[in-house]
Amino acid sequence: MILPIVAYGDPVLKKKAKAIEADYPNLSELIENMFETMYNAHGVGLAAPQIGLSIRLFLVDASPFAEDEDLTVEEQQSLKDFKKVFINPVITDEAGEEWAFNEGCLSIPDVREDVFRKERITIEYLDENLNAHTQTFDGLAARVIQHEYDHIEGVLFTDKLSSLKKRLIKGKLANISKGKIKMDYRMRFPLMKKGR
């Protein structure tokens, strides 16, 4: 089932999410719905707060990046089947140089900006079967994970921009929160007038 994606301005996007208990109801169905929602919106990642749930869950499928001709063959191969579910994740280490990449977000449509992030992370998490993992990721895989991880920490990529960049996109962000945008996927807007 395709769920509406919560738009910029909704308080759930600024809250630190709570851990998921092992008996969380209908977890596999929720994960399935989140993948369907993400694919419908042509995203490469989706966090639970983006569908209005303040829980520590996100999923990624970075395989669309595998076709990026600017990447090395090794990078393309590593992203080709990069589809994962992260439950109660904790980033335990960030390393390497910070590098810029033009990021966007399904909750903040039509806004893209360069964001600096570390090139390598180590993360502990549970998968969709609640099996524990500790893995290290680098490059675009690390970046997609960091972006989604920020969501469960109540941080948006726009929070990482300079004050000048924030001022430049202020009007766009206000329009998004009021629903004054056209999207080809379902969204839920916090400041839309009822009856519109």
Q: What's this, in brief?
A:
It is built from 4 helices and 7 strands; from the N terminus they run βαββαβββααβ. The chain has helices at 27-40, 73-80, 139-152, 163-177; strands spanning 5-6, 45-47, 57-61, 83-105, 108-126, 132-138, 187-188.
Question: Can you characterise this structure?
Answer:
It contains 4 helices and 7 strands, in the order βαββαβββααβ. The protein is globular. With 196 residues, it is of the alpha+beta class. The protein has one domain: Alpha-Beta Complex (Peptide Deformylase), CATH 3.90.45.10. A hairpin with a 5-residue loop joins β5 and β6. The strands form 2 sheets. The chain has a 5-stranded antiparallel β-sheet with strand order 2-3-4-5-6, with helices on both faces. Strands 1-7 form a two-stranded parallel ribbon. 26% of the residues lie in helices and 31% in strands. The model has no long low-confidence stretch (mean pLDDT 92).
What share of residues are in beta strands?
25-35%
Largest sheet: 5 strands, antiparallel
CATH topology: Peptide Deformylase
According to DSSP, the number of beta strands is: 7
Global shape: globular
Distance between the ends: 24 Å
* Radius of gyration from the alpha-carbon trace, in angstroms: 16 Å
- The CATH superfamily bears the name Peptide deformylase
The number of helical segments is 4
Q: Provide the domain count.
A: 1
Structural class: alpha+beta
